[in-house]
Queue: 2 jobs
Job 1
Amino acid sequence: MRVSGIELRLCRLELFHQVATSQSAHASRPVVLVRVLCADGPEGWGECAALAEPTYTAEYATGAAELLAHFLVPELLQSPVLDDEDPAREAMARLARVRGHPMAKAAIEMAVLDAHLQARGQSLAAHLGATRPSVPAGATVSVGVPGEVVAAAQLVEAAGYRRLKCKVAPGRDVDSVRAVAEAFPHLVLSVDANGAYDLGDKEHRRRLEMLDGLGLMAIEQPLGPDELAGHAELARLLETPVLLDESVEDPGDLEAAIGLHALDGLSVKPGRLGGIGAACAATKVAVAAGLHVAIGGMFETGLARAAHLAVAALEGFDLPGDLGASDRYFVPDLTVPHELVDGELVVPDSPGLGRRPDPERLAATTQALAFGTSGPGAGEALTWTPAHSSTRGLPRLEL
Ligand code: MG
């Protein structure tokens, strides 16, 4: 594969339902997109999982945009010929010189993979060896008091979801989740604390024990990302499976967590783990260790959602995940929407990711663009330019 140019876009989409976690409120979604142009085949698209603020992991969207423009894209364009058999793996190996930043790197991997598989006429699901035609969908509702959470759950149930994840925080947890469980006994319920509880706090511990009595599918990331010993204690204490999300960013974290028996299951997010290849590898390790596996969500547009549906269709994903239909997130979506069918989402089966940005939506949501080509000057940083006259709401990015 010969990469002739790479375009970066910083887009902003309004979330249809605002989502509040214990750490952050999300009303709109900045999205960094990567478009890889090939001299000898179709173009490919990738999407960066980084959110507006560095409150989930250390990465954030405009930071990822800068990193891509200054380091990752110039690195790739300097030697633009990639191994025909596995160009995504070679691209990621090349980018390993830059420390960290799994989400920014994963966006490039996704775009290279999309271009490669389109050239081969193969879907991502087929490439990964996934066989399920559809996967169970999930919806997430904000942390809140019982009335708010039940009202939000009502919409989710009416839309046809069978699985609901309630964001929780100490004090906005047991009563809300119990009310939802009583109002909607058929919904499969889980909670996600995004690390908000402290096991040293007696009240927090008591609340976690009360959540344990509600028959939940899982309690996700109750303690802080670095609290592996605490999670091990909780995994022993609670009947409910403890799922880790933020605590596992790389293979070393997963090995350590498994060694300490700090988890009963893993939330697999390709962005956090450093790409689709890394996510598949982590899934294999988790399944071999006897863990539950669920696909996680990052308020993706239809583009990354298509990729993550292919990952979720792999053997081993035994718990319903976070991925919902497009209309839970963006109306309209950046791509042809993903729709709920009998509580499930169809895994795309057309070549590559199976979705591409709609040109009109792309133009309407793009705030800034940067473009670089291979050849002379390829190692230099890309320069961002405003996409149109309106660049309002574009934080921290020098234009
Ligand atoms: Mg989570």
Job 2
Amino acid sequence: MVETIDLQQFIRDVFQSKFGSPPALVAKAPGRVNLIGEHTDYNDGFVLPMAIDRAIWMAVSPRDDRRVVLHSLDFDRVDEFSLDDIQKGDLGPVEYVKGIAHFLKETGLDLVGFDGMMKGNVPVGAGLSSSAALEMVTARVFTALSGAPWDPVAMAKLAQRAENQWVGMNCGIMDQLISAAGQEGRALLIDCRSLELKQTPLPTGTVVVVMDTNTRRGEHGHMDSAYNERREQCEEAARIIGVPALRDVSMAQLEASKDRLSDVTYRRARHVVSEDERTLKAYDVMLADDPAALGRLMNEAHTSISDDFEVSSKALDAMAEIAQAQPGCFGARMTGGGFAGCAVALIDEKVVEAFTADVARLYEEQIGIEPQLYVCRASAGAGIVE
Ligand code: GLA
């Protein structure tokens, strides 16, 4: 919390000293952690994430020459482009900004250029959606500068389009939508077909711990292709079964179609179909304030995504398993797209200190990398900060 306020002030101060006047506005958009419902969003299914108290802040003042000049403090670079000539460049943070600008322009919005400065504390490439946070903070800034209303769902859809078509990552809607629409103290069950959102508090007396394996997804493009391949396998399964998306398949239907699917396609589908079931149950048990039941579902979800969907890793498996074995841990699993990055645990608030110390030590002993563990609070989605 202290860190949050500090970063906000920090970015104002740096802006002021660079440009000689305070920013016209500061916006922020959070990263997210997904409690359950992994690789279900692009199958029109269900996810249950929460926005976290880590975000990207952008301080801006309008320019009158339709140029965007963006100082990125984390990447130590300055990028510049004209709103009248937005061209794709090498992958870097500004590509997300350009993608949003391009698709906002397509909606007919009259964009205003700006001098901007950004900084965040969502670890990059860790599976906590730093890209979605960047997309949403950009969208929030552009809409505010143009005086347009803020529609979180419409903006999340636009940002997803930007990521699919500008950056080339065929992600679903989860990350953008939770970064746009997150709620303080709440996780959101998202129906990724209707985009209906239902909120629930976390179980009483529990906290969510994000456990960063400190392994990263390596070359961006490489892991994106593994992600895109999973998506294609799911779409193939739906096509063979004869439904619009795996969301429409029950476990009984999947079993009846088993002979028509290759072993890999069947297992991919089994993960998605069972994960949708678990996610709906998870929402119910959260409403019933039953942390033990939620934890069991998280543990099952980890096994499913690791064995059937095969997007976990040695480090993620170790982290999830070590966490699961600790006293006071209700459940743990890898979170996000997979291959590297973070796992998430639901624990009894009384064991936070012992849990984080023991998991960190055991993980480092086993994997040889020092991890980072932090308690995350459910936070509000993208907004202008005072
Ligand atoms: C990434 C994508 C999301 C979602 C998750 C897996 O975070 O951006 O759309 O598919 O992976 O659940």
